[in-house]
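Task card 7
Instruction: Convert sequence to structure tokens.
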Amino acid sequence: MPLKKVYLDNAGAGLISDEQRKSLAENVLKDSILANPHSTHESGRKTNIIVENVRNRILSFFGASKSDYSVIFTSNTTHALEMTARLFHYNSKSNQPIVASLQSVNWNHSVLMMFKDSHTSILGMRNYFHYEQLVVTTYEELNDYLNNDPKDVVHSDCNHLFSMTAESNFCGRKYDLDLINRLRKKIPSLHVILDSAAWVATSKLDVTNFDISFMAFSFYKMVGFPTGLGALLLKRGREHLLRQNYFGGGTVNYISLEGFEVDRKEEVSTRFEQGTIDFYAIAALNSGFDDLERLGGMEQIEEGTMKLAENFYHFLSTTTHHNGRPIAVLYGNGWKYFGTDKLRSYQGPIVNFNLLRDDGNVIGYVEVEKMADLYGIDLRTGCMCNQGACSEYLGLDADVRIRLRDSGKECGDEMDTVDGRPAGSLRVSIGRLNTMEDIRWLKMMISTCFVNSSPDLFTTFNADDIPRLGELSKISVYPLKSASAMVVSSWKTSNGGLKWDRKFMVVTSEGVPITQKQHPEMCSVKCQFSANSLLLKDRQGVENDLEIDLDRVGREVNSRVCVKDISALDCGDLASEWLKAIGLPSGCRLLRLDSEDDKQNFSNHADYLLISKASIDYMADVTGLSYHEVEGRFRSNFVVNFGSNSAFLEDKMERIFIGSTEFEVTGKCTRCQMICIDQKTGEKNPNVLMALRNLRGGTSMTFGVYLKQVKQHEAAVRQGQKVFVTGVVQNS
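Output:
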């Protein structure tokens, strides 16, 4: 597999160009002394000038000046939205709001309004209960409402707030911003905060064309760096709409020590920026804006990104399987203008879709994401933090959403379908640094892996067909997560799996777990126990063995694996140097769980993993690999020979005994690109994952089952023990 990286999640965060990195190093970080802009010494004054010049540059970028808007720096778009929701003065009684429609709304009582197609950060604004009515609507409904009686002006003593999506982060649909002026004309007391985060990343926006009271956006979506910096534009003359009670450093001229008198600073920006702003990050924005100009400005960026998006959309909308069925279903109302001059007014460079099998069934987005990872393609999956658009386009009504919640659905998990329907989708978002070669690579991946795929070869079994007796043919322990297996003839079980299984882990200097996915060098690490020590061996024979004393207590650290917070011990600098010597990143650390009897381990999902010999045989036959190579790639704890040639029998098992130790099946193991790694060479090849995808056809890419020991006590398992199947899944 060629080593290539294609980044297509620009709606999540933009990338930094090489020119931008160089500029940052030369102009911001090298020999540059910036200081607190509240200080009046030379460095403080210089920093304050830089900050104010950046404010002016931001306003100019949006076609405005200091007489039009104030720039209030925030940590991101969400912070700007939250601050507005918290401080907005509705001029009405605080109350438990009611949900209203456009037809039933009473404009004599304060209103918070938003589109269904809104980011979660907009939905969160409703939980500051300073308003009296909540209206969640669509562009079409609001447009019809204005068209019914456009001359009838609504007068109200209350202030109202409309948090409007400029461009959908879900599908890239652009909304007609002329709606803002029409709304303000009909309802003068309705103020608009525009969520422009997706729009301004690839399109020009002149705020003076629209009567926008507030606008929220993030700079990292525009220029990649700095992260953690956004802004709220506040229209001059509307400062009174935000009521700020708290005051922090740099926001006041005078404070009474005897009472409550406070004289706040006159400049609007400094009134709302509490404490010291991130002045280094703000100074770095100049390099970002320079990069946008280097690329020809926002008009050229929009032209280039849309050209790529249109190319990919055309591929998905016209490519079919061998039987003529479409390969994809696409989402986003803006794309209905595809092929017309109107497209770029109503659509940004985002393509949202799900892939389909040749029988018309949806392919879960997790399966597609795993294949994309294998090809080095980064794209976004799920609902993109936009439940409204996701539910609308995918047809997920309230009952389905509640069922997903009750079944344990969480953001970022692998539950990607419900009743055969998608629970999320795939999003390709194109940024200023993407090229046509990136799109060709993406199309090649889809064509290779998901077009004209083989028919489903998966065999279903009746419960009566499942063998009830087998033999434990192999036991593998993985003391160091993602290192080579340690094959044993007998071993003890413990509260958290096989004794010492995945009790050690390597992390980067930032605390990120290191696995074979990113660092195939882990394949070369062998484990062996000697007396009261763990020996780490370099299979290449270059480095001497590293001995870890199991009684030695190191510095306690905290690490995170998947969703588990785990307390661990650092094994010291000598271990770190050894890991560096075998090719792992400088500064990485070897961690150990702080107790060998701890119920936790560094396993991603479960205590034990079992696969059948027949399943390995079948996969070896399909891929042309040897039995032992396939077995090594699937990294199980137990291999069981049931004396049957039928693959995937383990899928039907619910409960088993290995000797006298009882285990229950807790789920199937969904596979990722780890199985594409040759455990001897570390080289990646997609054939195993692609074969598994084809074999599993309409189901998830599972291979093997997770086990949990029923009674949590120390026991022993040994090679050759009888395996008894005492519970099987009954056919429905």
